[in-house]
Amino acid sequence: MTVLTRWEPFREFATLQDRMNRLFRETYNEGGKDESLATSSFAPAVDVYEDEHNVTLKVEVPGIDEKDIDIRLENNTLTVHGERKIEKEEKEENYRRVERQYGSFTRTFSLPTTVDAEHVTANYDKGVLRITLPKKAEAKPKQIKVSVGGAKAEKTLEAKGPSKAA
């Protein structure tokens, strides 16, 4: 008797993907530990905006302790480095789906020369790291008042008193 088997052309691709994932997990597994969840590096989202007084960065780093964040400023380059560690309390084989990214990250930003490196501040609140880079005083825009030539001359004459020519 002949048995008919349904042919699924994409089954081979799924098998190939599973084998490749296993290969990468085994190759990049940190410290030789046999973990069912491999950690991957990630790049947290960053908003950068500037006003007349500051350049401000907001870095989304929820679930990372402030002690695991390193901020350095050197030669007009800001480097933010950190690590989100996988929680070891839970049994990893019980996970059905893992979408959060774990591992270390490094973000580097070139800063304008107008930043005052001596007064940089960082604040971590509700999973958002806010780095405020104040501008140097000479870099801040100065508003110059424009005076009208005729109005200035009239004020000067009034200050000296009435003219004898009249």
End-to-end distance: 131 Å
Shape: elongated
| Strands ordered across the widest β-sheet | 1-2-7-6
Q: Which series of helices and strands comes N to C?
A: HEEEEEEEH
| CATH class descriptor of the largest domain | Mainly Beta
Report strand %.
25-35%
Label the structural class. Answer: alpha+beta
The description of the largest β-sheet is: 4 strands, antiparallel
Number of helices: 2
CATH fold descriptor of the largest domain: Immunoglobulin-like
Shape-level CATH architecture of the largest domain: Sandwich
Say how many strands there are. 7
Helix content: 10-25%
Number of domains: 2
Please mark out the parts with pLDDT under 50 across 5 or more consecutive residues, or reply none: 30-40, 152-161
Rg, Cα atoms, Å:
31 Å
Q: What value does the average pLDDT take? A: 76
Present the secondary structure layout.
Blueprint: H1 11-27, E1 46-50, E2 54-60, E3 69-74, E4 77-84, E5 103-110, E6 121-125, E7 128-134, H2 149-160
Antiparallel strand pairs: 1-2, 2-7, 3-4, 4-5, 6-7
